[in-house]
Amino acid sequence: MRARFAPSPTGFLHIGNARTALFNWLAVRNAAGEFIVRSDDTDTERSTAEFARDILDGLRWLGIDWDEGVEVGGPHGSYRQSDRFDRYRQVADDLTQSGRAYPCFCTAEELDERRRQAREDGKPPGYDGRCRDIEPAEASERRAGGEQASLRFAVPRPGATTFVDVVRDDMSFDHESIDDFVILRSDGSPTYHLASSVDDVDYGITHVIRGEDLLSSTPKHILITEGMGATPPTYVHLSLLMGPDGSKLSKRHGDTSLRAYRDAGFVPDATVNYLSLLGWSPGGDEEIISRPEAVARFSLDAVSKNPAVFDPQKLEWMNGAYIRAMDPETFAASLQPLVEADLERTLEPAEMDVLTLMAPLVQERTKLLTEVAPQVRFLFGDPVYDEASWEKVMTTDEARLALGGAAAALAGVDEWSAAAIEEALRAMLDSLDLSARKGLQPIRVAVTGSSVSPPLFESLEALGKEQSLERVKAAAERVGSSDTVE
Ligand code: GLU
After folding, report:
1. Ligand 1, atom nearest to 211 Cα
2. Fewer CB within 10 Å, N or C, the chain?
């Protein structure tokens, strides 16, 4: 099996295309075949290096690797369509020589005008075949005389193209409804139909797995492929993704680029797991399925033709499940770049130890990796006090009492551990007759800057005695509780 992913670098990697790439990859790895990634960059105006980079980065982030193609190389040259225009022109020439394609001299304005007229007359607006009957000798003469021409495929009529799609079974397209489509524009650039078909033949692709939006292009690709004397590959058209409301997935439903999910703190394994279930199922109600298991059990025959729903909330739920299942070191390591970005500096090794110590405490309730950096910021620099939390929590008599009491109690803790800290603070609360709720919250705000934080005693332990004391004392002074301390 040789399958390919063929993105056009005209936008960021779309979540639907990421799913197409994944289904290709799962099918190939299951069959121990070869996976090829090429770049469909014939649209030189809209293709950019930034989009190309984003797409490959996205694949790598997902853990999708390829055996041949862009950046990896292989026996077929560059794997970028923009480098292969000569090859496409050569095939277009061959198709013209063999009578399967012909030059069309109609200008864009003429075609527009005839389309408009056809619409007015209630006729189909497609190309009317006007240049198909021009004698080859005359056509050559006109081209030699400098007249611009595109090349069109001469679709045989009457006739039909039929094929068996792995997902959608028997497909048949009557040639009456297929125009003589352009394969080479008058500027010599190939259309998608030509470039894609030539690449699939040249690269020995056995399975074309792609979105259903390209289904109507397939008979054209089969005609070109057969025109080249090659056997068409097996086609697999995946249903399109829908939003939870049942309409085609679009920006209205939230982010549609993979990078948005990367940036939001999703982890690759959860994303792969979730995407793999969009149209495929390992059977039963199983939802959490590891990557190796998905590879072992994936089958194109089990792919559904029903539209699949992409639900970001479900993905978030799954992400939480994967985060909880991570071992603490891996979790801390995946937090490191996010914490460093948040702090705008790198973490010292000792600070990395602190992060590793805290990681299991926040892991349990984290759904997105990005939730964590703001929660652990207080460990790596002075807290920024949230004025609303401060007003709410710090301005009561109980707060004044608790902060003064905590400064004294913490100063007396010798062995700085969460357990010893808890014991000292609870004894202080008892002696001052303060409830845990009223008495601990001011300490939390003093130390972390916020009333929402990881568990308090462990936070104090991780922060260290000196820092903890300093912050509690400063807060006590700020609320004027020093006179209540004996
Ligand atoms: N380059 C096409 C696209 O991004 C896909 C080509 C194909 O899979 O045949 O829509």
Report:
1. 8
2. C
